[in-house]
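pasting for ref
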Amino acid sequence: MERRQFLAVSLATSVAAIAAPSNGAQTPASRERQYYLLRRYFLQTGPQTKLAEDYFRGALIPALTRIGLGPIGAFRVDVGPETPTFYLLIPGPTVEAVAAVDLRLAKDAEFLKAAEPFWSAPATSPAFVRMESALMAAFEGWPKVTPPEAASTKSKRIFQLRIYESPSDRDHLRKVEMFHSGEFDIFLKAGFHPVFFGDTIVGPRMPNLTYMLAFADAAEMNAKWDVFRNDPAWKKMQADSRFSYEAIVSNITNLLLSPLDASQI
């Protein structure tokens, strides 16, 4: 099977999942969906964290920007099961643009020179422990990354990364439908700043979806979640038998992140 045909077949399920009615969470002009590569770098405390930050800042993010990808998010896990861990969010206009990013970087002489300490680290002193990637398609109702205003000024901000796993493909589609049936509007009404919503096409622990929210600090995050939980529209949605939460979401990963200096988000 040719590569393009394989990608088309792989995407078929995801496209069906996110082609749900939208309540206009983003403007019509932004309807062309992005694709996301979300990478997780498992690190050891010590030299690896500085080496990874230097690599993101001096080599990887500049190279990704040169080839038209972005805005690039780079984050450290502040609250989560494994630390130190860094996340990298790479948005692009097509699935091939993000899926083949390493092949493109390998032909970039400027990148390879700047990335040498990280890319060529010896086994006796590796640059990271392990790296995992997930390839995602943006939700139809939230088709593009939306950085918080604080990102442009490098002001203080934190991020909540949430991953919802479902017990079956049907239940996963139902949870995606739930976002498109009013949950976006409840988020916005509560004052949240959503950054992205992605449906995992390839990655671990599928079927699942991932989304990110931005806040000024933990106090704002807790206050806005209280508003969300008490919204009558949310209570009504929870009472809808189609969206019975225990039935359609089997596990939630909830992480608190802070941006690295090089982050564009």
